[in-house]
């Protein structure tokens, strides 16, 4: 089991076996990280390395490469294998099947759109509009290119080719001997160690084994639950019995009662069996089946459904199981058998006793589940599930509801309402059901049952899982939905009662295909340099570094208290554990234990006091990662608790702030006078939540000792020089003895700028102490608990304007949660202050920032670096003002946008005379057809009672430079070889943003050679020294200019030799001649950003080289009864100057937008009252998935028609950075959702809605209005 992949669902394989009963080969994708090897005996395993043939990429791989469907590449193998599995089972899949196959795959980089677009060409239907017109932006004359997932991409008249690649999937060469191999009994393991795996082949053997081992044996089918318990909860199972080869356990048949299923039938096979029954039987008998299928579509991910079983899901007895409420509501029949007592039956509504305890005796096996036919005459049955994320997410509340009515008088003959998420077990609302039976059904009956339902579902405020009030309101809302569906009288209810359907997504991208710079590679959509490596699984990451003999693995020992003195740390038990080599703590550090990227206010190992849960106290070194992790849990720590502060509000009350070296404030104009002149003043406050980086590759480091105090560090960091500096500092050696190497990162987003150096320093200390290679890969939960997040913000504001909506004054106070140390919190607050105005002209503005010191892990850099939080606050007060003035929000934005006039400048005095925002805003209104779509949304809202639409647009202006002047520099080393190839080294790291691809293009263009002749191997401190972090979205600006400088030096040296050769001489011939004449073919380039200067004392200056601009429009549909949103369409126009690579830039825009959407609408970090992180993995922390992205996703690269502005840029080829600026545009979804809430509330008055706008917050924002509609304010 690979601890890196196991926590991200990235590592999937294809498992194939011959089904002797069906006479066919079955192909299923499986999460290899939790599947035990024993479970795939007698089956064929295909990994990503095995799907190409003779060096030729599979069509899936080709499409992803050509469409830039990978960025960091860490998740790509899982995506490839999921779709490969689909193509082995479906020769011509639909787009719906494609998206279904992708659920369970998470990608933090791409925003999913290029993945879906790339692979949709392999489907039999297309989601694009083949005849869509390409609209000109403004009066732009330059040609645009439209990229669209439609049949136009296919080679004409050839259905088996797509964009020059084979569409027909290569068939899998299934081993013939497995076709004829009959399943045999299997016994694996060592009985003396009590770790056994049994695979019986008859029911008698199965019952015998269960009787023999009883509670010491677990029935294991898919290992989806047991795998989590084993690997993440460290549970131990003496024996496992796999029943998959017992024919009765996988049998499926239609009986007189219903659909009979062996308990080991997988959820995928259950779905197929239900579909077959629905297609072939009387629809009146399959009403239950249809709702089971609806629920299965949202059951975990595809690879989990492929192996998880119907019986396992029941016996696991999760209180938030998706299917158990349905079983309970329709009274599925369960058959148990034991060796001594034979068979017995019960129904699912009687199965659940208490939390995770069911009515199954220790010698019994659940052998059969029967889902009954729906009874006549008038049966109503509905399945419901509400979760943070639509797919591949655990339920907040789920339900199965059944009601049978008399066909004439509509009296209720049967009623069963079952809920998950409302108690420690799947719970029946029995009193409510009894009350309903015999009553005549009417929609008004709902009013009568509300108090009864509340008694049936008495969820306490302190219920595990939190959100108690929301869950109580959801239960009422879901019952209302059911009653409305049964009633079916009001067409305005149909949107709320109909089954959810989401069409496949589609994308449109517009960019210039004739860039102004004549070049073969600059301005062209060249595929990602490592794309082929990503899709074939051959791209190497830090943890792929070869394991040296006698290598050791490090596991961290961390604090469980938010603030305490360390009274005793006892590690003797850990040292005595199997495989343990040694224990490290502060006394093991030969150099300095003091750490901190800016201020040395942290310790590598806590020595006397811990300041947060997750503070590192020590590390165990052992011969395997599992031994190290197990031993780390044996370390005993005695604490003396101290008072602690966790939140911004608590810090404000306690006066707990960091003291920066300069005042964190900027003021322009006479604020007091401007406020006095203002005709309207609004005051308010808003919170912006934190965000977990959730890079796919966890923090990873491999440190290897060398001779004479040398240490080589291979690590996943955005900051090699910082890793080098602090490893040397901790070891007490010179920096020239430490070499840090970075091949690539599996995502970073700022989370590996500073926090990674703690991991690399610990590994280096361990390597130096043991004289062995030390590997430290943080488990996902540990990574999330200790490495910090995006800063949460709280702001108060006082805004003044004229009555016609022109801004006059803004007084803004920002607070951020810095955590227990400064890290980069002060620079983050500085950037937040710089962006306090967002994109607006405010004559008098004061912004003051304070960084709160709390007892939480130190928060750190994250894409946008404080800018998105500050701009969100600005949009909040703009919305507040618009509502107060009764002015359309979009009109208010238009009136106050910074303009392209000679005296235009930011509130801190930086001139921006060429600001294109007004033109971009006008373009957005037109190309997105905003006004017509708003009118259509209003019409929809007038006809729909509980589902509303909202549309909102936002602008952004993002400053491009490090705000600390000295950091705006870069170096590069360029080697030219006599075969005409070039090796480039620069200070930037590749983490998916395509930096190396762009840098190769710069070198190729400057030297006049082909793109493929340039290579970048790695980023290393022995090649380029004193580098700056890959951050601030300026790495292409800085490193590109340094590479350009180096290449021009080489060109100058080559010029005399070019003159001696004919014009048609190759580059190799030129450099060979130069080499014979002893000319240097290597050069070291350097660049520093010009004209940067800012004074915090005066609050004036030019902190940024330039600004990047963008605008976005989002349309959402909100289910006001649940808070669930569907993003129907997004239009983005973004300014990237003259793009170095438009397809890579568009990928960054889409990925940044989706990450911003997650920040403002989906991702929520939850901390316990004692400071421990609750959302510490993908099961509880939800980033956007494939089905969360906009259904219609359109991106346009803004064009400066006259190039009057772009030509003035002093960046590399007049390009602009693109990584961070688009992220804020994701807030358009937040404000669109809020518009939908306004439509439901039917009250234009402003209300505060904090970020993220989760389903809980959105539903509760509708509560008062819903309460009126539900006849009870309690809703």
TrEMBL record:
Protein name: FAD-binding PCMH-type domain-containing protein
Active-site residues (renumbered): 1220
Domain (FAD-binding PCMH-type) ranges: 190-376
Keyword Secreted attached: no
The keyword Ligase is annotated on this UniProt entry: no
Domain of life: Eukaryota
Residues binding [2Fe-2S] cluster 1, per UniProt: 33
Cofactor entry: [2Fe-2S] cluster; FAD; Mo-molybdopterin
PROSITE patterns: FAD_PCMH
Sequence positions that bind [2Fe-2S] cluster 2: 72, 75, 107, 109
Single GO MF descriptor: 2 iron, 2 sulfur cluster binding
Binding of FAD, residues: 219-226, 299, 309-313, 322, 366, 385
Residues annotated as binding Mo-molybdopterin: 718, 749, 863, 1032
Cofactor binding annotation: Binds 2 [2Fe-2S] clusters. Binds 1 Mo-molybdopterin (Mo-MPT) cofactor per subunit.
Keyword tags: 2Fe-2S, FAD, Flavoprotein, Iron, Iron-sulfur, Metal-binding, Molybdenum, Oxidoreductase
PANTHER family listed in its UniProt record: XANTHINE DEHYDROGENASE
Binding positions (substrate): 753, 831, 865, 963
Family from the record: Belongs to the xanthine dehydrogenase family.
């Amino acid at each position: 089991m690979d601890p890196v992949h196991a926590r991200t669902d990235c590592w999937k394989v294809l498992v194939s076996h011959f089904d002797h009963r069906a006479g066919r080969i079955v192909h299923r994708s499986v999460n290899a990280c939790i599947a035990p090897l024993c479970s795939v005996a007698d089956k064929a395993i295909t990994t990503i390395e095995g799907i190409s043939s003779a060096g030729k990429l599979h069509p899936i791989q080709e499409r992803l490469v050509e469409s830039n469907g990978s960025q960091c590449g860490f998740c790509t193998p899982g995506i490839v294998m999921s779709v490969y599995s689909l193509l082995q089972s479906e020769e011509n899949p639909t787009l719906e099947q494609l998206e279904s196959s992708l659920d369970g795959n998470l990608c933090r980089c791409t925003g999913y759109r290029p993945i879906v677009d790339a692979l949709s060409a392999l489907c039999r239907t297309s989601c694009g509009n083949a005849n869509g017109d390409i609209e000109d932006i403004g009066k732009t004359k330059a040609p645009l290119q439209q990229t669209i997932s439609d049949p136009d991409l296919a080679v004409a008249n050839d259905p088996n080719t797509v964009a020059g690649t084979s569409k027909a999937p290569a068939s899998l060469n299934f081993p013939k001997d497995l076709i004829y191999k009959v399943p045999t009994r299997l016994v694996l393991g060592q009985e003396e160690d009590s770790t056994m795996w049994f695979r019986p082949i008859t029911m008698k053997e199965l019952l015998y084994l269960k009787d023999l081992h009883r509670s010491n044996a677990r029935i294991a089918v898919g290992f989806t639950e047991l795998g989590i318990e084993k690997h993440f909860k460290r549970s131990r199972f003496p024996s496992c019995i796999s029943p998959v080869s017992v024919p009765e356990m996988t049998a499926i048949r239609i009986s007189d009662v219903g659909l009979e299923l062996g308990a080991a039938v997988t959820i995928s096979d259950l779905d197929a069996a239900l579909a077959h029954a629905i297609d072939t039987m009387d629809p009146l008998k399959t009403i239950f089946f249809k709702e089971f299928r609806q629920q299965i579509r949202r059951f975990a991910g595809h690879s989990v459904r492929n192996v998880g079983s119907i019986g396992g899901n029941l016996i696991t007895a999760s209180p938030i199981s998706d299917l158990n409420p349905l079983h309970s509501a329709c009274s599925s029949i369960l058959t148990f058998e034991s060796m001594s007592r034979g068979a017995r039956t019960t129904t699912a509504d009687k199965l659940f006793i208490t939390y995770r305890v069911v009515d199954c005796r220790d010698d019994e096996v659940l052998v059969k589940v029967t889902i009954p036919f729906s009874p006549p005459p008038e049966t109503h049955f509905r399945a419901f599930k509400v979760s943070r994320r639509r797919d591949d997410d655990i339920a907040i509340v789920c339900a199965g509801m059944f009601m049978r009515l008399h066909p004439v008088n509509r009296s209720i003959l049967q009623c069963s309402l079952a809920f998950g998420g409302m108690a420690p077990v799947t719970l029946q609302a029995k009193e409510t059901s009894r009350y309903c039976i015999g009553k005549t059904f009417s929609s008004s009956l709902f009013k009568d049952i509300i108090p009864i339902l509340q008694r049936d579902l008495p969820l306490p405020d302190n219920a595990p899982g939190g959100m108690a009030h929301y869950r109580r309101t959801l239960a009422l809302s879901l019952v209302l939905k059911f009653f409305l569906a049964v009633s079916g009288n009001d067409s305005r209810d149909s949107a709320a009662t109909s089954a959810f359907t989401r069409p496949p997504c589609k994308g449109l991208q517009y960019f210039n295909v004739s860039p102004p710079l004549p070049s073969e590679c600059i301005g062209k959509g060249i595929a990602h340099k490592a794309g082929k490596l990503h899709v074939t699984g051959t791209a190497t990451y830090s943890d792929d570094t070869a394991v040296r003999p006698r290598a050791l693995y490090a596991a961290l020992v961390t604090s469980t208290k938010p603030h305490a003195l360390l009274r005793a740390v006892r590690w003797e038990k850990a040292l005595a554990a199997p495989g343990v080599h040694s224990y490290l703590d502060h006394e093991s550090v030969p150099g300095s234990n003091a750490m901190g990227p800016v201020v040395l206010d942290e310790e590598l190992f806590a020595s006397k006091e811990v300041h947060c849960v997750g503070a590192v106290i020590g590390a165990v070194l052992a011969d395997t990662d599992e031994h190290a992790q197990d031993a780390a849990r044996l370390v005993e720590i005695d604490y003396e608790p101290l008072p602690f502060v966790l939140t911004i509000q608590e810090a404000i009350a306690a006066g707990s702030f960091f003291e920066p070296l300069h005042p964190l404030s900027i003021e322009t104009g006479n604020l007091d006078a401007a406020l006095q002149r203002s005709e309207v003043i609004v005051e308010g406050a808003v919170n912006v939540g934190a965000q977990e980086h959730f890079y796919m590759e966890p923090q990873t480091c491999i440190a290897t000792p060398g001779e004479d105090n040398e240490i080589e560090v291979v690590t996943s960091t955005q900051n090699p020089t910082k890793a080098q500096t602090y490893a040397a500092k901790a070891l007490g050696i010179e920096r020239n003895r430490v070499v840090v190497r970075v091949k690539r990162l599996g995502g970073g987003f700022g989370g590996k700028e500073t926090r990674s150096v703690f991991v690399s320093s610990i590994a280096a200390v361990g390597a130096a102490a043991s004289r062995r290679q030390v590997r430290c890969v943080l488990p996902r939960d540990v990574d999330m608990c200790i490495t910090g997040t995006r800063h949460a913000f709280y702001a108060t504001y006082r805004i003044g304007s004229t009555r016609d909506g022109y801004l006059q004054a803004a007084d803004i106070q920002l607070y951020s949660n810095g955590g227990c140390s400064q890290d980069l919190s002060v620079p983050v607050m500085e950037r937040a202050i710089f962006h306090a105005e967002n994109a607006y002209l405010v004559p008098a503005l004061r912004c003051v920032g304070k960084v709160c010191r709390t007892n939480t892990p130190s928060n750190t850099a994250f894409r946008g670096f404080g800018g998105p939080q500050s701009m969100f606050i600005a949009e909040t007060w703009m919305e507040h003002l618009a509502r107060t003035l009764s002015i359309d929000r979009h009109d208010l934005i238009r009136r106050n946008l910074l303009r392209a006039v000679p005296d235009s400048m930011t509130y801190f005095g930086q001139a921006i005379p060429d600001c294109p925002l007004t033109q971009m805003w006008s373009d957005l209104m037109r190309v997105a057809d905003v006004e017509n779509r708003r009118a259509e949304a209003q019409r929809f809202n007038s006809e729909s009672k509980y589902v509303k639409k909202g549309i909102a647009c936002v602008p952004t202006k993002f400053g491009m430079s490090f705000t600390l002047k000295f950091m705006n520099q870069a170096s590069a080393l360029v080697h030219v070889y006599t075969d005409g190839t070039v090796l480039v080294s620069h200070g930037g790291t590749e983490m998916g943003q395509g930096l190396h691809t762009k840098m190769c293009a710069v070198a190729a263009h400057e030297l006049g050679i082909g793109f493929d002749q340039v290579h970048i191997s790695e980023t290393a401190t022995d090649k380029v020294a004193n580098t700056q972090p890959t951050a601030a979205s300026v790495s292409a600006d800085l490193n590109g200019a340094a590479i350009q400088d180096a290449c021009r030096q080489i060109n100058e040296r080559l010029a005399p030799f070019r003159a001696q050769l004919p014009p048609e001489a190759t580059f190799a011939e030129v450099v060979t001649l130069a080499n014979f004449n002893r000319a240097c073919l290597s050069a070291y380039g350097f660049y520093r950003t010009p004209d940067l200067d800012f004074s915090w004392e005066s609050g004036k200056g030019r902190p940024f080289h330039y600004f990047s601009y963008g605008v976005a429009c989002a349309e959402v549909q909100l289910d006001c009864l649940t808070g669930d949103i569907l993003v129907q369409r997004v239009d983005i126009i973004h300014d990237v100057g003259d793009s170095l690579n438009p397809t890579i830039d568009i990928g960054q825009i889409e990925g940044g937008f989706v990450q911003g959407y997650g920040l403002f609408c989906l991702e929520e970090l939850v901390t316990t009252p004692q400071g421990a992180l609750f959302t510490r993995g993908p099961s509880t922390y939800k980033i956007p998935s494939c089905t969360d992205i906009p259904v219609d996703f359109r991106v346009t690269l803004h064009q400066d028609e006259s190039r009057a502005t772009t030509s003035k840029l002093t960046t590399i080829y007049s390009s602009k950075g693109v990584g961070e600026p688009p992220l804020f545009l994701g807030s358009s979804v937040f404000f669109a959702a809020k518009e939908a809430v306004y439509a439901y509330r039917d009250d234009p008055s402003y209300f505060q809605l904090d970020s993220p706008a989760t389903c809980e917050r959105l539903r509760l924002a509708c509560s008062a209005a819903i309460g009126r509609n539900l006849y009870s304010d309690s809703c």
